[in-house]
Amino acid sequence: MTHTALSLRFAAPDVRPGAAPDFSQFQVPVAGEMPRPAIDATPETLRDLAFGMIRVLDDTGQAVGPWADMPDLTDDMRREGLRHMLKLRAYDARMLLAQRQQKPSFYMQHLGEEAVSCAFQRALRPGDMNFPTYRQAGLLIASGYPVKTMMCQVYGNDGDPVRGRQLPVFYSSKEHGFFSISGNLGTQYIQAVGWAMGSAIAGDDKIAAAWIGDGSTAESDFHAAMVFASTYRAPVVLNIVNNQWAISTFQGLARGGAGSFAARGHGFGIPALRVDGNDYLAVLAVARWATERARANLGPTLIEHVTYRAAGHSTSDDPSAYRPSDEDACWPLGDPVLRLKQHLIARGAWSAERHIQAEAEVMAEIAAAQRKAEAIGTLHSGRRPSPAEMFDDVYAEMPPHLRRQRQQAGF
Amino acid sequence: MTHTALSLRFAAPDVRPGAAPDFSQFQVPVAGEMPRPAIDATPETLRDLAFGMIRVLDDTGQAVGPWADMPDLTDDMRREGLRHMLKLRAYDARMLLAQRQQKPSFYMQHLGEEAVSCAFQRALRPGDMNFPTYRQAGLLIASGYPVKTMMCQVYGNDGDPVRGRQLPVFYSSKEHGFFSISGNLGTQYIQAVGWAMGSAIAGDDKIAAAWIGDGSTAESDFHAAMVFASTYRAPVVLNIVNNQWAISTFQGLARGGAGSFAARGHGFGIPALRVDGNDYLAVLAVARWATERARANLGPTLIEHVTYRAAGHSTSDDPSAYRPSDEDACWPLGDPVLRLKQHLIARGAWSAERHIQAEAEVMAEIAAAQRKAEAIGTLHSGRRPSPAEMFDDVYAEMPPHLRRQRQQAGF
Amino acid sequence: MTMIEAIRDALDVALAQDPEVTVFGQDVGFFGGVFRCTAGLQKKHGETRCFDTPISELGIVGAAIGMASYGLKPVVEIQFADYMYPAYDQIVSEAARLRFRSAGEFTCPMVIRMPTGGGIFGAQTHSQSPEALFTHVAGLKTVVPSNPHDAKGLLLAAIADPDPVIFLEPKRIYNGPFDGHHNRPVTAWRSHPLGEVPEGPYTLPLGQAVIRREGAALTVLAYGTMVHVALAAVQEGGIDAEVIDLRTLLPLDLETITTSVRKTRRCVVLHEATLTSGFGAELAALVQAECFWHLEAPVERVTGWDTPYPHTNEWDYFPGPARVAAACHRVLEVK
Amino acid sequence: MTMIEAIRDALDVALAQDPEVTVFGQDVGFFGGVFRCTAGLQKKHGETRCFDTPISELGIVGAAIGMASYGLKPVVEIQFADYMYPAYDQIVSEAARLRFRSAGEFTCPMVIRMPTGGGIFGAQTHSQSPEALFTHVAGLKTVVPSNPHDAKGLLLAAIADPDPVIFLEPKRIYNGPFDGHHNRPVTAWRSHPLGEVPEGPYTLPLGQAVIRREGAALTVLAYGTMVHVALAAVQEGGIDAEVIDLRTLLPLDLETITTSVRKTRRCVVLHEATLTSGFGAELAALVQAECFWHLEAPVERVTGWDTPYPHTNEWDYFPGPARVAAACHRVLEVK
Ligand SMILES: Cc1ncc(C[n+]2csc(CCOP(=O)(O)OP(=O)(O)O)c2C)c(N)n1
Ligand SMILES: Cc1ncc(C[n+]2csc(CCOP(=O)(O)OP(=O)(O)O)c2C)c(N)n1
Ligand SMILES: [Mg+2]
Ligand SMILES: [Mg+2]
Asked: Contact, A273 vs A298, CB < 8 A?
């Protein structure tokens, strides 16, 4: 009998602060190489899609390969996509600054991940429902939700539709297909499946999209969602946004020994795609494929969006404590805005000048919205929701004990 | 835009009560066909093992193929295995009868699944720890745990080591590597991983074995266990006992769209084997492979044991309400006892007469133990643990409020 | 009608009258539930309305929340209350707070049914009464019926309610009223007036207690199985107690309670759950605050002990009629 | 020393003196915890002793239970108490009951640390105080320190304890004592006597309350942040209150409480958690039962409202000094 002293593996990122960023282990697949199977292909034949990476935009900005084949996608639509990303980036920049001025208590950016939510939204139809995390505000922006209202939520002022009850960036809009964000990681993944089941039980044609971060796939709700989506073949798209980091822990910790997060789908017979999340067109193509499957009653699709969280986790976080501070600049999949810009220029549908002008327009739009929002109030000044409202919406009708407490509170 | 009315899939077993049992969809792979890779083979190369089925005993009782290659396995050891299964079966039969006489409140049998726990135990070493469900009493029997003590637990009498605190069959024996059974499905799967992590952190050489039923793989704890085992490469064997049923629901419900339960390992890079759970030698071979991997610091292995729950879920259950009442007789993988018996006879190491004699011996042994256990007491008669003990072991030291309550209770 | 039949009847009525109602849980569909509360419903209403789920309480409740927010009215079963913990996060962090955090934009009208309580030799994992873990959570309502008549009316009210309702079913009284005398022959609902259950739809408002027995000497607050234990205890002990069946723990019918205690001036609180931080603590805290000037004795609590529910000695754990009567006498003796 | 430093110091001492101690949780290893309570520990003690985990509270606690039953002493961090719910099943059904159900054969010596309470604009998911959800569970101990000195001594006692201990850290007082006056400048532990933390190992016994301020007119029961609010409120209100810092909720130091209330004859109970079924209910129930003949006024509770913790209006939710003082005056005015 051999007796080996056992030990554990403690996975760690390739580099830590102080060292030079190193993505040499990260293989960037050639754009256009992945096949584009039919939406009713069997999960078995789709297996490779969970380990490769669907990429449409090549290094020169050309859209290549079978996933580039979106004949209805006009230049206007491509420009609109760029504008959505610019808008989200400008919005982030302003809110980050505002947080430094303590106008909201907190803020979370999307820097580097704009393509994921902005592109995905374009594959949805009115009435579909996202169950987003705090890092998918692009879903709102791309659906035309007013930026001023978003700001009011961030400030928790009297213009906030959720009445100052939630942490900044925890938006909610039924009309725009954006389910109220919870704050407890993962919980909404299974709710998205349940929502989709509801739609199917009602014989409706609306589908749901679930969102989760790489780190949060470790939560139990992820499993429940996979089980239920698989068992009932629910019309839902299950998105994993792998932005490489979960606060201070790198994606390898939650992924463990698996080759990719997308691979999680295989244990459930759920087709799984891995996509370049910094490639607007690739995300859009994949989103269309998955939403089509759902709409055609072919069931769930799992999508791993590979991207990079270029900024801190939130305004409470300083990433230089756990990764090289210039790591974001070396991220091999580049910047989603620059890549779509390059594509549009390559198509002759855009120019450096128009880009500068668009940036200025967008920034002006955001600044104007900010002035309007701040005219209502910020966290510490101006009009905020009345404290009396704190007792509302706990129940549809206020029960006696809450009425009593409201009175005690002086309202 | 096409609009399809959505619908869900509601999976159902092939037949229901009233119809004839039908296992024509169940493919029985040829024994000996699956390769036996090295224990350090990469998960990728092991992929097929999760979809095929490792079988050693063929229809004639010959042990065939690479997994049959266990040169140290003497005839004595094979006969011992048979005896363990006979003993478990006899024990079950007596306790079932006792429950009909209301001597214990409840009982759960292993009929048809005896090989799984009896064979697996033989691959463990003293000090290793199982985290069993209520359907692995074979782990105790095969490790020589006294049957009389098991019966005292079932009766909850004064001989019960866990002092009448637990439901019948919820045994506990540290010495015999059998962790106290919880009753909440799934919870102990991640605990097994944690125990194995503890052993590895201590630089010890003990490994853990986790157990879960097919239905219970849907629980969240299953996911947590997979994540942690994968991330830390813990020295643990993760067993799924797929006995086709979870009370009234068939295994297809929890499995969903996946080809097998073993496939769940692939999303985590955990090697996964599917084994004929009614083949004592196959279970033993697979258990040895997986425990060797763990001991060699190669990390976790997932094993799906394919078997059939021939009896009701428990004494509270009547399976004829949800499956053809003679379905068990048609189960294509046969009876584990008969198959090992046939093997021994084919080897010239056993005979029909010796079998009958062995059955009689085992039954006498069980009956003798039962008399001793009943001499102490049954649920409703004889000596039971003092109610005063109810206040013990809530904490190591009894806090004041419990001392007060014990006094109030009259002790 | 038994309580099981009454619950099944309520579900049947709800499924028939409201196409948005769905019923699901473990073994709930084809088989009809391990306690048979949903027997026949799948066959009658189809499997999109009543179906089996994988064994994931988290999944059941999480999916129900999504479904409720879509616009359906899920009525889910947790096989035993002891198994609700995996769903507790979804209940507390999600179902209970969705209306509040979205300012009413998204809501969660759903019912979570679960059998509670001991007395069936179910030991620690088939005996728990976790009501206090729900009453502490803003956004939930918690209901505990004590008989078939109420079970149907309250369940239909819970289904009609626009918010999440926890519906606790004392399993020991599923098949007959149980007064705690475990050594006596079992009685059936058939011979109990509240075993008579009206046909068709009717609701009993959530938040209304009922006085089961009028009395002048002290007030006993109880719910579920303990209502029957209380009635037996005061009957046998010749105690002139007013026995109140709370029926809904939250919202609580404080008025009925305080009116009674101000009259009787003494109060005993009962439940099967462990003592510390049980719902009895809230009741005692409220009664002493609201009836301070009327009380002639401290409010006493008779509850399960602060230990897990044991198996063999379950009748030493269960707060039976002897303990209840003794407490009443103690409280009455206070001068 | 701040409370964060005191906690880190306790963990450092424990890791150094006991090779069985392990420390893990989300962001706990390399980074040192989002509140920095474990900063430097991995570097000093190695990654087998202090490490990062995937984001699964269930996994963290479930693995810790297994590890504890193996023979180690895990001290795990839940990043915010609001995120303990996914682990609640493992805590309640497993950690708390393992010793009992195995009759002492398997045990679960572990500590679950979690930051609690509001006051940092964290809204509903970064502000909760779930202590009552632990005190209701037989088999758990629950500790809430109110200052750095106690935090270290109590944490070391919790680690030494042979049973699972829930260690709740009021995050608002991590960096300084906070008296509820959110508009005044923040003070530091540096200038507070209990910010002085002895070097090396020492323990404070679990189950012992301490009187923070002697007084004759009424007793205020508090723990965590609310101790400081209580002291400020009675000081500013010129109230001759005895302020008791419970430190351990379970086991509870009932003697210190009843001795005080029998002396002062009046009692106010404070906590930040929601009112209904909060730990204050248990305290009020116990005080009225134990001190009935001494009480000259009903026990009053000042707590968070029965709503989720709001963001913008968090100071209207927080039971600050004004509400505490008003309650004390009300209780004192009762004739
Ligand atoms: C249940 C729960 N546990 C822990 C947290 C604290 N937390 C907030 S964000 C975060 C990291 C999430 O990482 P990931 O899922 O990768 O998403 P990302 O922030 O990268 O978008 C953690 C641990 C939480 N919000 N909820
Ligand atoms: C958390 C939890 N949920 C539900 C139950 C009730 N229950 C007990 S056994 C069982 C079926 C388990 O089926 P499976 O996992 O296939 O194991 P088997 O009984 O077939 O061995 C169920 C639903 C439980 N014990 N715990
Ligand atoms: Mg991430
Ligand atoms: Mg099974």
From this structure: no
**Domain span including residue B206:** 43-380
Peptide bond into B300 cis (omega under 30): no
Q: What is the mean pLDDT of residues A24-48?
A: 93
Burial grade of A78 (CB within 10 A; 0-12, 13-18, 19 or more)? buried
Give backbone dihedrals phi and psi of B267, rounded to 5 degrees, phi first. -70, -10
Where does a domain end: D155, D171, D195? D195
**Token reading at A362:** 């967008």
Report the C-alpha gap between A57 and A70 in whole angstroms.
Answer: 13
Both C36 and C89 in one domain: the answer is: yes
Say which of A8, A156, A184 has its CB closest to residue D125: A184
Helix (H) or strand (E) holding B242: strand B236-242
Q: Residue A230: closest CA among chain C residues belongs to which residue?
A: C54
Structure tokens at D71: 């023979």
C10 shares its domain with C106: yes
DSSP letter, residue B30: P
Residues A323, D172, D36, CA angle at the centre, nearest 5°? Answer: 25
Q: Examine the pLDDT at A121 and tell me if it is beyond 90.
A: yes
pLDDT of B45 reads 87
Residue A2: the pLDDT is 61
* Burial of B175 from C-beta contacts in 10 A (0-12 / 13-18 / 19+): exposed
pLDDT for the residue numbered A1: 55
- Give the Å distance between the CA of B198 and the centre of ligand 1: 26
The answer to whether position A27 is within a domain reads: no
> What CATH number corresponds to the domain at position B152?
3.40.50.970
Backbone φ, ψ for residue A204 (5° rounding)? -80, 175
What's the mean per-residue pLDDT of chain B? 97
Alpha helices in B101-204 (DSSP H): 114-121, 138-142, 147-155, 187-201
3-state secondary structure of B309: coil
Alpha helices in chain D (DSSP H): 3-17, 41-45, 57-70, 88-89, 98-101, 131-135, 148-160, 225-236, 254-264, 279-290, 314-317, 321-333
Q: Is D228 a catalytic residue?
A: no
Query: What is the structure's pLDDT at B43?
Result: 80
pLDDT per residue over C292-309, tens digit each?
A: 999 999 999 999 999 999
Domain-located, residue D291: yes
Identify whether D224 is part of a domain.
yes
Q: Which of A207, A392, A393, A401 to mutate to test the interface with C (most CBs of C within 10 A)?
A: A393
By most ligand atoms within 8 Å of CB, the mutation choice from A239, A247, A316 for ligand 1 is A247
Determine the angle formed by the axes of helices D279-290 and D254-264, rounding to 10 degrees. 60
Q: Confirm whether D127 is domain-assigned.
A: yes
| pLDDT tens sequence across C325-335 | 999 999 999 98
Q: What is the tens place of the pLDDT at every residue in C177-230? A: 999 999 999 999 999 999 999 999 999 999 999 999 999 999 999 999 999 999
Q: Is D200 within the bounds of a domain?
A: no
pTM: 0.98
Which residue, chain included where needed, has tokens 């918690």?
C142
Distance, C-alpha B87 to centroid of its chain: 15
Using CA atoms, how far residue A350 sits from A63, A77, B135, in Å, is 15, 12, 68
Ligand nearest to the CA of A116: 1
Q: How far is A79 from chain B (nearest CA, A)?
A: 23
Total domains present in chain D: 2
What is the distance in A from the centroid of ligand 4 to the CA of D88?
Answer: 25
The secondary structure of chain A in percent helix, strand, coil, rounded to multiples of 5, reads 45, 10, 45
| Whole-number Å distance between alpha carbons of D148 and D176 | 9
Strands B129-131 and B208-213: parallel
| Full domain range(s) for residue D150 | 3-195
Q: Is the pLDDT of residue B1 over 60?
A: no
Determine, yes or no, domain membership for B390.
no
Q: What share of chain C is helix, strand, coil (3-state, %, to 5)?
A: 40, 15, 45
